[in-house]
Amino acid sequence: MNFENIIISSENGIGQITINRPSKLNALNVATIKELHDGFENLDGNPEIRVIIITGEGEKAFVAGADISEFANFSIEEGAQLAQQGQELLFDFIENLKTPVIAAVNGFALGGGLELAMACHFRIASENAKMGLPEVSLGVIPGYGGTQRLPQLVGKGRAMEMIMTAGMITADDAYRAGLVNHVVPQTELLNFVKEIASKIMRNSPVAIAKAIKAVNANFKDGVDGYQTEIRNFGKCFGTEDFKEGTTAFLEKRKANFKGN
Questions:
Q1: Is residue 140 part of a domain?
Q2: What is the distance between the alpha carbons of residues 140 and 27, in angstroms, rounded to a whole number?
Q3: Are residues 41 and 111 in the same domain?
C-alpha cells in the first residue's frame, strides 16, 4: 500500500507506523486517520507481526493535535459525525486490536495526539514529551475518546483538571500519573520500546490477544469483565499455544509459540 502521511516498516516481527507530517507537527487530519486505520489493519492481519509501535516523525511531535482547519466551520451534525467516524475508524479500532500496540511518544502529544496514544495498549515517552488535551481553549471538548480514556488512566480528578485547564504536563508528570509506563531519553526511545516488544514476543500471541479482550472488557458498559476473562481463559485451553506452553514448562525448555 502507498501512503502519503505515514511510513510503515517491519523488522524481526515488530511493525512500526510513523506519522510523517513533520511540517504540521504530525497533526491528524481525515486522510491521516484513514491511512492509520489501513496501516494498523494491514499489520494486525500479518501473522508475522507480533507487536506494533506507533510514533511521530522528527524530534518535536508525536502528534501535536488535530488539523483544526478541516473542521473550523463544521455544523453540529458534522462535528458529531467527525467524532463518531474517527472513534470507530481508528481510536476504538486500535484499542481492540489483537496485536499489542505501543505508543512511542517522542514529543508533543496534544488533543487528538494524546487521544491516539491513549488508545494504544500502553505508552512510553521521551524526556522532552509534553501531553495535554487543550480542546476547551478552542471552545470544544475532546472528541476521540479523551474524556473517557484519560480518567481511566489517571483518575477522574486529575483528568478533570487537565481537561478544564487545557494545560500540558511533562513526561515525568505523565509517568507519575500513570499515563505513561516509562520515560527515557529521546535518542533511546525506539530501542527501549523495541526491547519491551521483544519481551512481549516471547509469549503466546493467542493468549495476549485474549488478555487484551479481557482487560478491555472491564471498561465497557454492560460487559462483565470477569465473565469475559473466564470465557477467554477457557478458550486458551483449546489452542496449540497452550499445549506448547505447558509442555515446554514441564520439559523445562523455552516455548516456541506459533500463534494458534
A1: yes
A2: 17
A3: yes
171-210 pLDDT tens trace? 999 999 999 999 999 999 999 999 999 999 999 999 999 9
Active site residue 135: yes
Question: How large is the angle between the packed helices 240-250 and 205-217, nearest 10 degrees?
Answer: 110
Q: Read off the C-alpha cell for 67.
A: 488539523
Query: CB of 31 within 8 A of CB of 75?
Result: no
3-state secondary structure of 48: coil
Instruction: Give, rounded to a whole angstrom, the gap between the first and last alpha carbons of the chain.
Output: 27
Is 115 known to be catalytic?
Answer: yes
Dump pLDDT digits (tens) for 22-31.
989 999 999 9
Sheet holding 61-63, edge to edge: 61-63, 108-110, 130-132, 168-170
Q: Is 122's pLDDT higher than 80?
A: yes
What pTM did the predictor assign? 0.95
Query: What is the domain-level CATH number for residue 60?
Result: 3.90.226.10
- What's the mean pLDDT when you consider all of the chain? 96
Residue 1's nearest CA partner among 34, 48, 27 is: 34
35, 57, 95, 135: the active-site residue: 135
How confident is the model at residue 1, as a pLDDT? 72
77 and 100 together in one domain:
yes
Cell numbers given for 172: 515525568
Distance CA 107, CA 189 (A): 11
Name the active-site residue from 115, 127, 244, 251.
Answer: 115
Give the number of other CB atoms < 10 A from CB of residue 61. Answer: 25
